[in-house]
Amino acid sequence: MSAWVDQIFAADQAAQGGVVRRSRDSVDQMASMAEIITEAQGRQFHVLETGDQVVILCHPGEVVIHC
Questions:
Q1: Which among 17, 28, 39, 42 has most CB atoms closer than 10 A?
Q2: Average pLDDT for residues 9-16, to the nearest whole number?
Q3: What mean pLDDT is predicted for residues 39-66?
Q4: Burial class (CB within 10 angstroms; exposed 0-12, middle 13-18, buried 19+) of 3
Q5: pLDDT per residue over 13-51, tens digit each?
Q6: pLDDT class for 1, splitting at 50, 70, 90?
Q7: Distance in angstroms (rounded) separating the CA atoms of residues 9 and 38
Q8: Reduced to 3 DSSP states, what percent helix, strand and coil does the chain have, rounded to the nearest 5?
Q9: With contact defined as beta carbons under 8 Å apart, do 14 and 36 qualify?
Q10: Sheet of 46-50: strands edge to edge?
Q11: Are 21 and 56 in contact (CB under 8 A)?
């Protein structure tokens, strides 16, 4: 895993069960979606992609999309 991915998952928001957001371009330049997804799955987090953003929900709880 890259140091950049380590930094994402070490962020205060991640440690507190919050939300971490990065641009898809940054993910592609600094790491890969596969790395992000693998690390998130190992932590039972959720990864969403919307527009040009990658959003990581840093908790294992259920995800419900209302609209």
A1: 39
A2: 95
A3: 97
A4: exposed
A5: 999 999 999 999 999 999 999 999 999 999 999 999 999
A6: confident
A7: 12
A8: 45, 20, 35
A9: no
A10: 19-23, 53-57, 46-50
A11: yes
